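Narrative of accomplishments. A recurring question from our advisory board has been how the design workflow behaves on a single, concrete structure rather than in aggregate. To address it, we present the structure tokens for one chain from the evaluation set, followed by the sequence designed for it. No filtering or post-editing was applied between the two.
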């Protein structure tokens, strides 16, 4: 496995090694020991799987607040997505900044998004399936969101046409209106 740090502290891009032959490929998509050595030492307690049928579907930018804050290890099992993490930790030198990467069934790449970051993605192909591990259980009472197209964040979504959004995501608050429940603790 190869790991790549990003300009956002704690957000890590992972590319698991694939072993292929005429039948297809095999890859270990998670091994606790190896991921912990790479700085991804969360206690994953829940796996999620979602399908976004339409090209240009945007989900996010979502987070769960403490005490149920979630880290997420995201990969694309079918199709392709543009996956994004946004720093929402008060006092962080990268507050409001984002990173984004293409995750696809073809490239096998993953993105680890730790607590303190909003997460979202956009489908680059129809019928894209997203599979992700979470470090805490789903707790709807702690859900939060930031508007996906907030101009202050300035995510360069590779969107052609209109985004396909949920009603909730369409009215998410701007970052400036969010009283973030996360505080930057300084460099690790």
């Amino acid at each position: 496995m190869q790991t790549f740090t990003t300009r956002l502290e704690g957000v890590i891009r992972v590319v698991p090694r694939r072993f292929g032959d005429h039948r297809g490929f095999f890859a270990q998509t998670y091994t606790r020991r190896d991921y912990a050595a790479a700085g991804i030492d969360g206690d994953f307690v829940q796996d999620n799987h979602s399908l976004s049928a339409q090209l240009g579907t945007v989900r996010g930018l979502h987070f769960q607040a403490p005490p149920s804050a979630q880290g997420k290890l995201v990969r694309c099992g079918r199709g392709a997505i543009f996956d994004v993490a946004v720093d929402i930790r008060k006092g962080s030198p990268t507050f409001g900044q984002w990173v984004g990467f293409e995750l696809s069934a073809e490239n096998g790449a993953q993105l680890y998004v730790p607590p303190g970051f909003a997460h979202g993605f956009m489908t680059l192909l129809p019928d894209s399936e997203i599979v992700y591990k979470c470090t805490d259980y789903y707790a709807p009472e702690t859900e939060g969101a930031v508007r996906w197209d907030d101009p202050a964040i300035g995510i360069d979504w590779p969107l052609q046409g209109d985004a396909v959004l949920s009603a909730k995501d369409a009215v998410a608050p701007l970052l400036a209106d969010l009283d973030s429940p996360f505080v930057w603790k300084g460099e690790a």
